[in-house]
Amino acid sequence: RNHPCKLAASAYPFEGMDIATTDFLMDVEGRSACPACGKSRKFFCYTCYVPVAEIQSSVPRIQLPVKVDIIKHKNEIDGKSTAVHAAILAPDDVTIYTYPNIPDYRQEEGVVLIFPTPSALTVASLFSGETYQMKENYGLPKGYHMGTLLRFRLNDIVDSHVQQQQQEEVPEVLPHADYNFPVKRAIFIDSTWSQCRGIYKDERLHSLRTVVIQNRISQFWRHQRNSPRWFLATVEAIHQFLMEVHIAAWGLDSRYRGLEHIHLKMDQIPENRIFLPDEECSDVVKPYNGQYDNILFFFRHMYNLIHKYYDHDTLKAYKRPLY
């Protein structure tokens, strides 16, 4: 079960997820040199994005269905950012850039920015070709509470005219992994909310299609003033996005129990997307059953460690309002 913290299993947010054991991390004594830069590190180097040699063979390595670029503000402290976890655990697919040194994505196809704007699409709508017009709740379905995600309405920084791309309908289950995805690269901004809005104004990002993910309660232990529990840590947001992409493309395994403790609105997943896979059919991608849960490998370990020494109910981060 791998959760030595002061929470009942029913309240443990990672219960049912397929995350590799982190028990060996508790046996790591002291610090060791980063295999790349030689600096003293505990579990991994947060500037080189590699595990220390002692644990390298035990740290999981995962492949993602899309490329993930993380743009961090220069004032973000590397050692405190959860974005680093994703780069270490999915090194072939995750790249971290420090703003303003970022690529120009404007000519690249299939790029989306995970950022809440009035014209943002849901992940499911990317695959269905459905678009939402400006209306109540900014046109988003229930479970994507724009008002709770933003401290300010974004009318001052978002152009009302955004090019809408109509896409062909995709089959209920995509046939194979190299299917022509409507999204090939997802961009996340790793910064405070005020810094995030400033980065979004950059013309290299401002014209990109924006996407919002479903609300779920953050388990991040660092208190963020004036922000509700729906504000996810970067690695949590990446995990949520990857799950939604996989479910939209290949469905959700009805046996998976990892969604039951993160306060996700299950009614947002259509019933026809939840099914048992055909075990005899090996040439199709299986529905979601924890394939990307290991992106939370280090995040869960730190959560366990914090809760080993502190009572959950006394931590300010978990007293933030839900709305």
From TrEMBL:
GO terms for molecular function: tRNA-uridine aminocarboxypropyltransferase activity. It is an enzyme of class 2 (transferase). Signal peptide: none annotated. It is found in: Nucleus. GO terms for biological process: tRNA modification. The keyword Transmembrane helix does not apply. Keywords: Nucleus, S-adenosyl-L-methionine, Transferase, tRNA processing. It catalyses: a uridine in tRNA + S-adenosyl-L-methionine = a 3-[(3S)-3-amino-3-carboxypropyl]uridine in tRNA + S-methyl-5'-thioadenosine + H(+). Catalyzes the formation of 3-(3-amino-3-carboxypropyl)uridine (acp3U) at position 20 in the D-loop of several cytoplasmic tRNAs (acp3U(20)). Belongs to the TDD superfamily. DTWD1 family. This is tRNA-uridine aminocarboxypropyltransferase 1. It comes from Anopheles atroparvus (European mosquito).
